Amino acid sequence: MVVSRIRAINTAVEIIPAQHAKIDLREIMDVGAFDLDRVLAEDPAFLTDTEHQHDTTVTSVGIDLPGELDEDRLNQRLGDLLRTKGADIFRSKGILAIAGAPQRYVFQGVHMLLDGEFGREWAEGEARTNRLVFIGRNLDRNALERGFADCLTGAGATA
To answer: Distance (Å, rounded) from C-alpha 158 to C-alpha 149?
Structure first.
């Protein structure tokens, strides 16, 4: 189904199957896929600046939180966040320090879908810190920061 939809948009495109973005980068980098002359031949107005309006409700929130996260509280917080605000969160990603885990937990999400896995180990002496980024509509920075701060070990249970 996806392949047929892609072909409906661009019949000439080369489709390279990949799972979890695992692909030989030589297959997709520096292949000359964008040719400005070709685009202008198909759409002479491509470079013309058209009037558009930005949606001021769309923002990004970056959180940098030192310490380790309690896994149970983190799972509860993420579940609540995605259930209540998932439709407004366009993208999310982060690197997290889970208490007791020697590896960094790397996640990314689109709306209510979230995927993650443990990555490389924290280096000896490396500060265990949590870096999260949310892009979405009507994001409340203070609520997001408080919510994840409540997940830190030693922060106690949240109400």
So the answer is: 10
User: Is residue 47 situated within a structural domain?
Assistant: no
Q: Which residues are CB-neighbours of 46 under 8 A, at least 6 positions away?
A: 39, 40
| pLDDT tens track for 114-126 | 888 999 999 999 9
pLDDT, tens only, 49-63: 666 566 788 999 999
Parent domain of 73: 58-149
CB atoms within 10 A of CB 86: 18
Query: Would residue 154 count as lying in a domain?
Result: no
pTM (whole model) above 0.85: no
- Give how many domains the chain has, as a whole number: 2
The verdict on 134 and 85 lying in the same domain is yes
Rounded to whole angstroms, the Cα distance separating 154 from 100 reads 13
